[in-house]
Amino acid sequence: MSTLEEVFEETYGSPPTLLVRAPGRVNLIGEHIDYNGLPVFPMALQHEVRLALRPRDDETVRLHSNDQRFPPIHFEIEPAIEPWKKGSWGNYAKAPAQELAERFGIWQGFDGVLESDIPVAAGLSSSSAIVNAVGLALAHISEVSTEPRSLAAVMADAERYVGTQGGGMDQAISLGARDRCAAKITFHPLRLRHVVVPDDWCFIVADSGDVAEKSGALQAAYNLRRKECDEALRVMTAHLATEKITAQLCMSYPDLCGTIDAETLIKISEQVLQGSLLRRFRHAVTEAARVDEAVDRMLAADVHGFGALMDASHASLKTDYHVSTAALDELVAVAKEGGAAGARLTGAGFGGCVVVLASRWTVGEVLETLVTEYFERRHQAERLEERLFVAVPCRGASIREI
To answer: How many domains does the chain have?
Structure first.
């Protein structure tokens, strides 16, 4: 098999000069709350996007993918780049180009060849890894700051170009992760608190087989949940101000959660909110509390305490946020039957993967149970190494000269 550099030379007739890598991620806990400004707790994966490139002397970006599902693309860098149709993979390359052009006036493009071993549409941030890889390349070429936190904030804004109104978790962990660590990410301002994952903990990623494509048909459902969270916040802050429950105005979810404890907030919300607004609010507030507790459980190496929080997170995502599926629920149940300390869906949901916590001593049995009781029963055992693996917490994105 040809190397990425060899494919580049075959494609463009000369060797590349730069190599970028940007990892995917698995979110351990803190789902659907980064866009509310609330903390999350992911780690970067050993699976990554790799981009070999050579800068050009004009505004053109030419990009080939080693995956034949994704045709070659080219476009010109300018502050207002017209997107292709919804779902086009090329929009994830246009997104950082437009954002960097608008903010910093970049204009210089590149020829590139991209490859990735991050499962696509599985909730492991394959799309954000492309955004980060292309963004890091363009920023480096134009001598814009590539400091991870500052670039992550820019890339989070950039990705909204594709239409999904996400938060900043994926970009921050892909750019700023450290080896052997998960990171508690807080926002406004962006901060990463790195926490070493205990050596005897194993996080298993298992793909349900249900495609979870946020840039496609599920985009509206994803964006609706953000709107519902915003509306619930508006109603709650108005009530708190009218009733003078707090001494200061609470205008954001971090303000609310930092002023009133989760249990009290839920009691108040049950008197003020109804239906989906109540459910979305309840998930956001309780999930944020679970993130804080999960960090403490990891620092204490309390595998069962961490696992219990994962179980509670999945239950909330299923019943209050309505983003689980029958296949995800089944995977969680099978993992628990195999001896897992905890399991939950990871990513946006609506399909994709679960993340499972096991100890070094139980991981073999959990993996075996997942194979026999889920993948083989569903006749989905082909390419199993891509669909079931133990995640390795890895460092964030990098760029180097070849």
So the answer is: 1
CATH code for the domain in which residue 185 is found: 3.30.230.10
Does 384 fall in a domain?
no
Please report whether residue 388 resides in a domain: no
Residue 317 included in any domain: no
Domain of residue 78: give its range: 4-197+395-401
Task: Output the tens digit of pLDDT for each of the chain's 402 residues.
Answer: 469 999 999 999 999 999 999 999 999 999 999 999 999 999 999 999 999 999 999 999 999 999 989 999 999 999 999 999 988 999 999 999 999 999 999 999 999 999 999 998 899 999 999 999 999 999 999 999 999 999 999 999 999 999 888 899 999 999 999 999 999 999 999 999 999 999 999 999 999 998 876 666 678 898 999 999 999 999 999 999 988 888 778 899 999 999 999 999 999 999 999 999 999 999 999 999 999 999 999 999 999 999 999 999 999 999 999 999 999 999 999 999 999 999 999 999 999 999 999 999 999 999 999 999 999 999 888 889 999 999 999 999 999 999
Inside any domain, residue 63: yes
DSSP per-residue letters across 83-147: P-STT-TTHHHHHHHHHHHHHH-----EEEEEEE-SPTTSSS-HHHHHHHHHHHHHHHHTT----
Q: Let me know if 75 is exposed, middle or buried by CB neighbors in 10 A (0-12, 13-18, 19+).
A: buried
Q: Which positions are annotated as active-site residues?
A: 170
Contact (CB, 8 A) for 294 and 261: no
Neighbours of 262 (CB within 10 A): 18
